[in-house]
TrEMBL record:
Similarity annotation: Belongs to the carbohydrate kinase PfkB family.
This protein's record includes keyword Transferase: yes
Record-level GO BP terms: fructose metabolic process
Listed name of the protein: Carbohydrate kinase
Species this chain originates from: Roseobacter cerasinus
UniProt KW keywords: ATP-binding, Kinase, Nucleotide-binding, Transferase
Record's keyword annotation contains Nucleotide-binding: yes
Length: 308
């Protein structure tokens, strides 16, 4: 089983009303939530760890998890409100404004760490939940606690404008990268982590030396690259589609990668270090395939396995 650990929120997506005035429509979202939904739709046994409100938006999020077959037994519920992310779309690309103070997701603390079932082989972390405190410390503590026996997958999905204390964030991220087995970053993430003129491959290999067995780098329309601690490199092109918007593209790419590794039987602490170029190429290709479907339609609406 794969457990996704991170934020669930409401994306307020702009949409024209009947009168022609722009309004916002609430869509279930959040980087880690999107990955969990996509994994569930791809047929992978998936669980979710987050803080979820009992307000109307929390009810919407819980219903979406259930509809996609995601186990929410380890969700931590409260009366605090749900995080809202207002989305501004510019030629299909999304910019976010977050309303996240004192919310159900952000207010998690390390004292609330859940006990996980033995069936969980991999944990996936990422998104703004790794920035906002105190929940960032909750997720870091969970990753460090589980790393000795379970596979840790990390996608920081860095939003620099959201970071208030860069030193604290970098220190926390370094601790999580050190225990990660599989790390995914965008080219923008990589340049933020390692400012400078080195190539993306050189920077990715620096991350490999920090702990991960493999580092995946997404490059938008240029495709994706993976480097292995063994020295191998794999490149896969992006699939060409007509883009409606890019909301959830990276999140569903991650789900495609994880689903492929799960199907290949290598998504475990023992097997991932032995991964070969063929399995990794197949994983990147499936990630690109799943992401291509998502960007071809509005919002973070990952495909079901039958659509691929």
């Amino acid at each position: 089983m794969i457990f996704c650990c991170g934020e669930a929120l409401i994306d307020m997506i702009p949409e024209a009303t009947a009168t022609g005035v722009s309004g916002f429509v609430p869509h279930a979202g959040g980087a880690v939530f999107n990955t969990a939904i996509a994994l569930g739709r791809l047929g992978c046994p998936t669980g979710f760890v987050t803080g979820l409100s009992d307000d109307l938006f929390g009810t919407q999020l819980a219903a979406a998890l259930k509809d996609s077959g995601v186990d929410d037994a380890h969700v931590i519920r409260s009366h605090l409100p749900t995080t809202l992310a207002f989305v501004e779309l510019n030629q299909g690309h999304a910019r976010y404004t977050f309303y996240d103070e004192n919310t159900a997701g952000r207010s998690l603390t390390p004292e609330q760490l859940p006990d996980l079932p033995d069936t969980v082989e991999a944990l996936y972390f990422g998104g703004i939940s790794l920035i906002s405190e105190p929940c960032a410390d909750f997720y870091a503590a969970l990753a460090l606690r589980e790393a000795p026996t379970r596979l840790i997958v990390l996608d920081p999905n860095i939003r620099a404008s959201f970071i208030r204390d860069e030193g604290r964030y970098r220190a926390r991220l370094d601790r999580m990268i050190a225990v990660a087995d599989l790390l995914k970053v965008s080219d923008e993430d990589l340049d933020w982590i390692f400012p400078g003129d080195e190539s993306l491959e050189q920077k990715a290999r620096q991350l490999c030396t920090a702990g991960p067995s493999a580092v995946l780098v997404t490059r938008g329309a240029e495709g994706a690259t993976a480097v292995l601690a063994s020295g191998a490199r794999v490149d896969v092109p992006a699939k060409r589609v007509e883009i409606v918007d890019t909301v959830g593209a990276g999140d569903t790419f991650n789900a495609g990668v994880l689903a492929s590794l799960f199907e290949a039987g290598v998504l475990s602490k023992a097997r991932l270090p032995e991964i070969g170029e063929e399995a990794l190429t197949g994983a990147l290709a499936k990630g690109a395939q799943v992401a291509a479907v998502t960007v071809s339609r509005a919002g973070a609406n990952p495909p079901w396995a039958r659509e691929l």
